Amino acid sequence: MTENTVYKKTYSQPPVDIGEILRYCGCTDADDGFIGIVQNLLDEATKNISYKVCYRFADIKIQGNNCDLGFVSVESADLAKNLKDCNRIILFAATVGIEIDRLIAKYSKISPSKAVIMQAIGAERIEALCDTFCKDMANQFSLKPRFSAGYGDLPLEIQKDIFAVLDCSKQIGLTLNNSMLMSPTKSVTAITGIINTDTGANK
Amino acid sequence: MNFIDFLKENIVFLDGGMGTILQSKGLGAGEHPELWNITHPDIIKDIHKAYFDAGSNVVNTNTFGANLLNFSLSELDDIIRNAIKNADDARRESNSEKEKFIALDIGPSGKLLKPYGDFDFEVAVELFAQTVRLGVKYGADLITIETMNDSYETKAALLAAKENSDLPVIVTNAYGEDGKLMTGASPEAMVAMLEGMGADAIGANCSLGPKQLISVVERLLDCASVPVILKPNAGLPKTVNGETVFDVTADEFSDDVKALVLKGVRVVGGCCGTTPEYIKALTEKIKDIQPKAIEQKNDTVVSSYTHAVKFGASPLLIGERINPTGKKRFKQALIENDIPYILNEGLSQQEKGVHILDVNVGLPDIDEKKMLVDCVCELQAIINLPLQIDTSDCEAMEAALRRYNGKAMINSVNGKEESMKAVFPLVKKYGGVVVALTLDENGIPSTADERVEIAKKILITAEEYGINKKDIIFDTLAMTISADNNAANVTLEALNSIKNELGCHTSLGVSNISFGLPNRDAVNGTFFALALENGLSAAIMNPHSAEMMKTYFTYRALRGLDANCADYINAADSFTTSSPVAKATTAVADTDMKSALQNAVVKGLKEQAGEITKELLKENEPLDIVQNEIIPALDTVGKGFENKTVYLPQLLMSAEAAKSAFEIIKSQLSIKGGKGADKGRFVIATVHGDIHDIGKNIVKLLLENYGFAVTDLGKDVPPEVIVEEVIKQHAPLVGLSALMTTTVPAMEETIKLIKEKAPWCKTVVGGAVLNKEYAEKIGADKYCKDAMETVRYAEEIIKA
């Protein structure tokens, strides 16, 4: 790892995809009444959601299935495959904050149907944030699809190392518990490889 | 000179960054900087010395993450001893002639507190306490609590500091660009809570540069009666030639901070990216500025985890519905530990626009202390209104105040020596605005003058405990006019004197005035208006009473407290519309009531289902409605779900509609004293280490729909707690849920313990990572893929 800088970004609201929210709800078709309920909950949620990302760069070495990510060395065939042709990665953590957890908790207590929808909204929002961040970074680098701990054979335990080097708690208020669960829950950590053809270092 | 005296008279210079300097000196990513106190003492000492030389009055020890989550007790002892020694060596070696102090630095734990994380509040208090005790042992002059982005964790740290030392404590929080902490608290909310608990200075540090913190600092200055601290970052980080640098120069930084010192900031320093150069620039630019005197604010303020509520010209509404007095259904909820019912009472009052929620859960047969703490924690998890802790049990009061995330209202103290002796120390320790009743050992005086005399006595005693007048609110006691014709006059007269002569805020439990009279709302509404005109600051009242709300909105409009009468106009509609009962009945008037209920359940129409049930109950037996209407409707939907023609949210909406029908039936049965349907007992929990509970709640809802008595133990539940409940109820069935592979072992352990201690009990498991094979492997009797399957299985077991 050649540099220590952890960057932080706050985004304004990424575009909402209602279809994705419905998909996360498990609905393949929905009537106007149901979409109206989703829309109301979405309005309640977006008032309170914040979109925060922290990230850093790291030089990496891939040998066989061994991925030396600079801050941790890990055996993972799937990650090695994903990072083929990369010497460098962006490591990031993203969260839409604790308010969505509060709303999910509120509806869990009083209306499980709305809790399911709120949960779907949170899932759609954090994915949208990750997409927005990666698109933003793709303006400077050509990037591989993002890859998270727990995907394929990449062990969930490297979350601990990711949290340590990104200083997630201080940067964006994201914490990890002993069972490797993140709080706030609508959060993602991921690695995205920078494809070698791009020689421009970060600015 | 001691720090507190120095703080009174001077602008205090803190130090600048530590972590960012250590990184430039080779501290690796993810390495603990605190260990450098032992491994690189000279580097640490030199950094401290450079700050003292640059003009810092206070350096923070290199102990940001020095706690038992990161180190063993012996390591921690070593680290803190060496950290304080390094700072002390620097102090001796520095030639600076300024006053020099060493602050024990305490940063956040890196864990999120329950309920949104897994870190218990008391465990957090003890974690910080260990660090504090070592700091005291090795001779720190003061304690700095910094970079906290959660109000609750800040409270835990300050409580630990206060309970384990007599040292001065200064507290800074990390505010985001939205001017709030990560968990939602505003600067005003933080000041209310931290001043209430006795912080010696309060402010902002880290996260942003000085320019981005201007508005937060101005807001702190507007409400704080203690010195305000500013310790910002040197802007944002960037990388130049492989090195991290920050984008605000020392010159610009010191100009920005100076501008805020001119506005009244009294304690200044720098955070990430700042160096001794920045502190030198600060001290040079600020050295000739006279410190601005700190103005004592006389505002009466309570706070929640998000915002502060100030008592002022516009009256406040305190919702009274979370209280079992005279409410059979609420009593039943308390006995059955039916927390959702209580939360609903809170949410519906919030919707009506109350500003504060009164919480009274005292009942002879329950453990009030536990119930009060549980309710406070549950309410503050989802409702952002300040709470009024309402209890006569001082142990319960203390337990609830301790766990409360903010500055609470406390109900109540009175003029009896015994009461003041018990309650005032709690107000002093935890902060709070306390309601003082104008009664004493001789009871409630019959004249206004005597009530005012008691108020004066209470104020004098409060002052002896160090409690400010602004934190006392007087209740001159509304007594029913049906017993004493002059009762209202006395109450109002006393109210008027206390407001206008003593200059204190007031509150009343308004509805007591009409006890024993018909159409009480009419009396209450008019009395409320009279009380407002006599200086009532806050009413403890029922926001579902149209008369009370009419008075509230019209009073504000008439008294010029409602700009453009906007709130009145907004609310006016609700004064005239007919009741929802009438609406629902007309909607279904020409259809058969019975099939109408089935229809409402199938369509998931919650309110209609409830209203139709009310109508049906006039002519039908409760259990007939369940058997002939609700269950067939649920079966229709359940089958649809199993055949994949109904989706999960729709299934749940039907279940909720059925529940609202059950709720009506239940209240009817509790009035009649009968018992509801009870097919069998089912204990349910999300296992230890896991905090996902949506799936579990869905299962619970459907089981209840089908007549099972479900005991929900919540989430993150240890195996022994589950087993204890199973044994206590002799439950034939327990349901366990886990979302993560990492928490399945906790599930396995729970099943093992159940098999050992309660062999009669069947275990059913579910959750995203489970399947039939996995469930068998961990010894579960049954895996169910969804809530409907769990219902079917439960019915099978109960039949057998």
Task: Walk me through the topology.
The complex is a heterodimer of chains A (203) and B (800).
Chain A: E1 7-11, H1 18-25, H2 32-48, E2 51-59, E3 61-63, E4 66-68, E5 73-75, H3 77-82, E6 86-95, H4 99-110, H5 112-138, H6 158-166, H7 168-172, E7 175-176, E8 182-183, E9 187-195
Antiparallel strand pairs in A: 1-2, 2-6, 3-4, 4-5, 6-9, 7-8
Helix pairs in contact in A: 1-5, 2-5, 4-5
Chain B: H1 3-9, E1 12-13, H2 19-24, H3 36-39, H4 41-54, E2 58-60, H5 73-93, E3 101-106, H6 121-137, E4 142-148, H7 151-164, E5 169-173, H8 187-196, E6 201-205, H9 214-223, E7 228-231, E8 237-240, E9 243-246, H10 250-263, E10 267-268, H11 276-286, E11 301-303, E12 308-310, E13 316-322, H12 328-335, H13 339-352, E14 356-359, H14 368-382, E15 387-390, H15 394-403, E16 409-414, H16 417-430, E17 433-437, H17 448-464, E18 472-475, H18 487-502, E19 505-509, H19 520-533, E20 538-541, H20 546-558, H21 566-576, H22 580-587, H23 593-603, H24 606-617, H25 622-642, H26 648-672, E21 681-686, H27 694-705, E22 709-712, H28 719-729, E23 733-737, H29 744-757, E24 762-766, H30 772-777, E25 782-783, H31 787-799
Helix pairs in contact in B: 4-5, 4-11, 5-6, 6-7, 8-9, 10-11, 14-15, 15-16, 17-18, 19-20, 20-21, 22-24, 23-24, 23-25, 23-26, 24-26, 25-26, 26-27, 27-31, 28-29
